[in-house]
Amino acid sequence: MTGPLGFDVDPWSLGLTGVDVDRLAHRESLFALSNGHIGWRGNLDEGDPRGEPGSYLNGLFEERPMPYAEEGYGYPEVGQSVINAPNGQIVRLLVDDEPFDVREGTLARHEQRLDLRAGVLRRDVEWISPAGRAVRFTTERLVSFTHRSIAAVRCVVEPVDEAVRVTLQSDLLANEGLEDVHHDPRVQDALERPLEPVAHHARGGAATLLHRTRRSRLGVAVAMHHVVERAGAAAPSVSTDASDDLARTTIVAELEPGERLEVVKLVGHEWSAELAPATLRARAEAAVDDALRDGWTGLAEGQRTRLDEHWACVDVEVEGSPRLQQTVRFALFHVFQSAVRLELRSVPGKGLTGKGYEGHTFWDFEAFVLPVLTSTLPEAAAQALRWRHATLDRARERARHVRLGGATFAWRTIDGRESSGYWPASTAAFHVNADIAAAVLHYVRSTRDIAFEREAGLEILVETARLWRSLGRLDPDGGFHLDGVTGPDEYSALVDDNVYTNVMARRNLEGAAAVARRHPDVAARLGVHDDEIEAWEAAAAAMVVPFDERRGVHPQSARWTEQARWDFEGTREDEYPLQEHFPYVELYRKQVVKQADLVLALLFGHDAFTLDEKQRDFAYYEPLTVRDSSLSAVPQAVLAAELGHLELAADYLAEAATIDLDDLQGDADAGVHLASLAGVWIAITAGFGGMREGEDGLSFAPRLPPGTTRIAFGIRVHGRVLRVEIEPERSTYRLEAGEPLSIRHFGDELELTAGEAVSAPTPPLEVRGERPTQPRHRAPRPFREALGDGA
Amino acid sequence: MTGPLGFDVDPWSLGLTGVDVDRLAHRESLFALSNGHIGWRGNLDEGDPRGEPGSYLNGLFEERPMPYAEEGYGYPEVGQSVINAPNGQIVRLLVDDEPFDVREGTLARHEQRLDLRAGVLRRDVEWISPAGRAVRFTTERLVSFTHRSIAAVRCVVEPVDEAVRVTLQSDLLANEGLEDVHHDPRVQDALERPLEPVAHHARGGAATLLHRTRRSRLGVAVAMHHVVERAGAAAPSVSTDASDDLARTTIVAELEPGERLEVVKLVGHEWSAELAPATLRARAEAAVDDALRDGWTGLAEGQRTRLDEHWACVDVEVEGSPRLQQTVRFALFHVFQSAVRLELRSVPGKGLTGKGYEGHTFWDFEAFVLPVLTSTLPEAAAQALRWRHATLDRARERARHVRLGGATFAWRTIDGRESSGYWPASTAAFHVNADIAAAVLHYVRSTRDIAFEREAGLEILVETARLWRSLGRLDPDGGFHLDGVTGPDEYSALVDDNVYTNVMARRNLEGAAAVARRHPDVAARLGVHDDEIEAWEAAAAAMVVPFDERRGVHPQSARWTEQARWDFEGTREDEYPLQEHFPYVELYRKQVVKQADLVLALLFGHDAFTLDEKQRDFAYYEPLTVRDSSLSAVPQAVLAAELGHLELAADYLAEAATIDLDDLQGDADAGVHLASLAGVWIAITAGFGGMREGEDGLSFAPRLPPGTTRIAFGIRVHGRVLRVEIEPERSTYRLEAGEPLSIRHFGDELELTAGEAVSAPTPPLEVRGERPTQPRHRAPRPFREALGDGA
């Protein structure tokens, strides 16, 4: 059974048979491996053909010029782009004198499989060379969860029917020649060969390359070592050469039928802005030496153990839709591996699966991914939030530069410096600061990590609260307004009183005040005195949330609902995404929503709106929301579920879950959409689970997606694990260990004790209003069609 | 008597003694000569030292890339930059073997004088070479008003006391090496050597260079010819050489005391996108041959005759302030010479006096300069409006591209294609279209040029009216709104219902309807039917002009007055202009006005506001207007005068008049501010003259600037000339010829008959309200101080 794009359907893996050379880049993104420090795209081992080679180290980037047709004060002059670290993936195979290439000879078998329990990407090839020599070539690849700097490849070559001479060329390749990096030749210049060689070393089956980026001056060391674990009767020959940009170990073996050549390649990666080359080299080589002791078996066991532990706590089980089961686990796997070994870094919008968005991290990490990490992998959430804290000096400097108070975090960045080239949709999108603050508050509430709150959290809250105070204005009636900002929806900009921004800023101000009062010693150290705290509370209390009395709905921003409505009927299907066919000047002045904005406020600020308001707002915005962004379907799924539109919620869930598998946005070549994948978990837990988190703890209102018979999910809270099981007639809650926990089920309080399952019945579904409609051509696919398994 | 920056005070010239090498660029702009086709900056004849060499041909430009840090739909990809045509100004002098250089030897005398009646720039030098040889070197230079393609230089060299050998090297120099053309290397590449050599010719005392621009593919031919009109006893030797980028005629003479070498250099210029090189060459040489028949004397007489005629009709006479007299004539001279020989071209923001704004023309040409041309040089106004008409196809294409109806003219351009790199302050500034429409309506009303109205005017009105209809939206109460536009004030952007835009668009719609009804045959040819005309009328009638009831003033745009007020008290003097010290994100969301916007509406839409509204609006906006743009002082002057604040009006008049002479904006190096210079005429006629033009003809309410005793000005109307003379107690109107004309004087109708002066008394001054204040550090200089002559 295969899904729409040819992947088979399996609860614990994603498999693909055959090679479609034109779609390689897409598959490389899906099959990418990562641990949050290293990212290896799923390139074919032999390096060619390829979609886009990718071997990334989180935080390793090059600077590039930012060109402007017309300059303006405060425009960033230096941009940042992710670059490829020296690539250790490559293992080329020669059979006799013929190089293995999937486009030549006969490919009798070709299967790739990402194993979501083993944490390994496997490939199984049977190839008959143009000269008629048949070999079986199997590889396994991992990016280690237990050895942060290590990625590894295990290759096995076996003759099928007659003796062959087999050569493996295993490379470390730096500065791979890429074409069309950027259409601006200055940027192209900066990024084409970003690595300056510093040194290279080779010895036995090992080698190390040392480089430095030309402009950002970051050092990078990549070391490799080969273990020929078993072979035929004759010992294979092994030799290694290194030059500036290439180290190569060549292994040659004569194999009789029944014999095999088995090689394990261990690759260690280090980079640093400060360390000396000799230190970097030593660390990369030490990582390899350390991994050598574990060997392939140890590394692979480490993967499985770490994943077993993860799945045991937070796996999402789906019964009744095998494809939904698969896509949900695929999504959670990518979220997990994007962050499991984070150390004081953020996660880019594409994780480490591609160079999309230039490797930048955006607000949607804190808004969509970080809450999921907080609930499933809290130690990674802490690392990411501590990274934001580490960029506070840059955020303060940016605020000073744009003449504001407090701190304003970068809209898009790798190292914390603002790297946006279009200020109306970046500098003005101040909500990123409230999103970070919300992530801080949620993390602390979920984890009770008071050390973090004192060391980092409060300072983030204080500086962002200061920003809002400096941004706001009081009207003559005492209302507090935020003018001239941009909300999440990128088809509007520079608006007044964006509801999402104001609601989130209010929470930011309230949170800063509450936490400052909780830690007066830390607050005092940050220069916070009572009058400032009171001013935050006053601003929060006076925050204006506009409401359109005439239409009975919240406008996305002040007077937004008075604008002309977009001509959806006159817009052709091929004119989406609109931003590629219409100028901002048209988009900005009309009622058309790229991505949930007011509806996102209904989700993230759920307690600020009545159910009745949610119903009217959702009904109003659904026909205006075109979902030209991958950040839209998830909040729409949650609101649809909350209002009882379970089919619609399932449609949006399916869209979020298949966005990369089915390449719905046409850009998965450049990496997966991590926020959308994280959103799958949100759509299930907050959407179908009805899970909300507030001052009074967790509440649930569980429902099943139509056609499914059981869904179970887990959530980490206060160091405990809560498993929730949804069945048609009832839900069951089970606290795995720890102190008792009080939750609510459809408003009823349930007291949970460790190890004891508590069930409660599902009340009849209340559907609020008609199922809302979407703009012409923009309704989501029905989930049964999207999932392709009659779910 | 000299003014603040060292220019002497003379009613008919601008003179300067000595050379300040650090301020050369500024003086080159002031001393620039032009005829609307050719522009020669006032560079020293010998080419060095120089501020910025300038020899421009109106419409000759090179294309250049437009870089963006983040791309967007509809962003122009190709920019346009004015370039230097091969430079024919240069005449280098050698005295014996020593090159004349103002920085070497002894400069016993150095005077430059721009003669506003003769239309000639004179230079008078006495130089003692380092070897002690003394010569007198006088040059005169003109850009011909009678021979459109011709500029000429007359040089005279005389030994002072002993015999010398004198060499004149007269150059045509192409692709002069400029430094720092642009900080973007791609733009630098495009503009550094923009001219490809095509051919060169030399014969006798003549030469021609033929070039083509590399990207824009425009051909340019420049020819020169030398006439050695008189010399010493021994005939001078004359030889000419030419190569790709340089043609040089060398004239050597041995001169005894009392003898002199006199050389006239004629330079002919042609450029074209279509003509073959041979044709271009032929035309440039024919222009020179034609000018040869007139000789220097004939050319100089042509200048004076043309200016005599101009001054006789439209000179502004000022008594009681010699410096105001001089600055006003200087301003009018620049306006005249910027346009007198226009042929289907516009006038750049800097005229042809410098490469500021890349040689682009903007809305302020139609808004500020064109009305002055219409009233003083109407044939030039027609040429400029016909040029806009000729760009209609590009404006229609641009409208289609940005998904709008009708046509949207380029915000900044040389050839009609949009060349703006920042859309919020260009594409969104749709008012340019209404400004052009207003210029059409004013031109036709003033000239009764019905042929123009039928051939060009109506089509402009129709296509711009269509634009407004496609831009607007109707509210549920039937009001017509223009959302998401940018008005004249560049410290606000993307606002709703900008009052200036709405008032001007309303006039545009009304005008299109009225003119279409007047010429139903032309309208039908343009596809205009009655229902479309009625729709324009309906939109105009329903146009919303927002009003702030709470504050009793018009907001600059909807709800603008609700924004936070800029912190003027906390802004240091050195933080102006604000855009160089604050980001747009701060400027846009606060009440701070770069340049008159609502106040410009009060001027251009004067009949849409009551006097009481004007008083309250002006009092409200004065304290918010920082005049970081040269386009601000003039409308402020007019409104101040209308409200009886004559001292303030005089302060603003003085600011407009001295903006370049005193380099108030610090950028006169790159050319004069033509709109501000034209605005001097507006400040005098509309401001102190109280002149308004409406459906019922011209009205006046004349007052004198404090300290002046008499002002007289002339205006062309319906082919006639009306002279207005303001004295303290009365004004006198005199129609020079033609049909009788009815005007109003302080509301009283006066019937004027040709040749008969009609006087009427000046009623007592009514001052409306307190003199408004300006932001701290931004009050205009008192006019007596600005004019430096105790006026």
UniProtKB/TrEMBL annotation, chains A, B:
Residues 17-272 form the Glycoside hydrolase family 65 N-terminal domain. Residues 782-791 have a biased composition (Basic and acidic residues). The active site is at E490. Substrate binds at W363, D364, K594, Q595. One of its GO terms (molecular function) is carbohydrate binding. GO terms for biological process: carbohydrate metabolic process. Residues 755-791 are annotated as: Disordered. Keywords: Glycosidase, Hydrolase. InterPro entries: 6-hairpin_glycosidase_sf (IPR008928), 6hp_glycosidase-like_sf (IPR012341), Gal_mutarotase_sf_dom (IPR011013), GH65_N (IPR037018), Glyco_hydro_65_C (IPR005194), Glyco_hydro_65_M (IPR005195), Glyco_hydro_65_N (IPR005196), Malt_Pase/Glycosyl_Hdrlase (IPR017045). PANTHER family: GLYCOSYL HYDROLASE-RELATED, GLYCOSYL TRANSFERASE. Belongs to the glycosyl hydrolase 65 family. This is Glycosyl hydrolase.
